[in-house]
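user: can you give me the structure for this one chain? tokens are fine.
assistant: on it. calling the predictor now.
[tool input]
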Amino acid sequence: MADVIARVGPCTLVRRTQWTHFDALIRSIVYQQLSGKAAATIHGRVIELIGEGSEAPVRIIATSHESLRGAGLSTAKANYVRNLAEHVSDGSLPVDSLDDLDDDEVIAALTQVKGIGKWSAQMFLMFRLGRPDVLPEHDLGIQKGIQKAYRMRKPPTPAQVLRRGARWGPYRTVASWYMWRILEVR
């Protein structure tokens, strides 16, 4: 890891504090499997349609499926956004108190929402909540970073990522950031 840090340089990982937790989760759903520019355009349209802030979940529920689709969301993502809004509105997802939960509780709370899997929950922990000890073992970038950093012939399995990452605790978020960044270094 010392070689990786020397090659990459200082960690510039920053917690994303713009928006509410709910708005950040909407953004996460919109951005799934899209290029940055296309996702930004669609996200802008969705925010224009429903607005931001504490009333956004209620406004999403009141917005027709066709209107969400018209903003550029796929059928699946329109359903995911609505499912998120329903969970927040009925209290089954305590979005405003996610900071008070431990990492496993945050993952369990978020993954009850269709369209938010473990990886998305881990990204929320890392980049939104700023949790220091998260290692997304299924992340292809992490796997490829470990492969490159440790000169492995093939990418490690998720179990191998967790074994290697055990040494990085309690700062596995920073180590993950370095595994992503090493892929940008020759």
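assistant: here you go. The chain has a mean pLDDT of 94. Residues 21-128 form a domain with the Endonuclease III; domain 1 fold (CATH 1.10.340.30).
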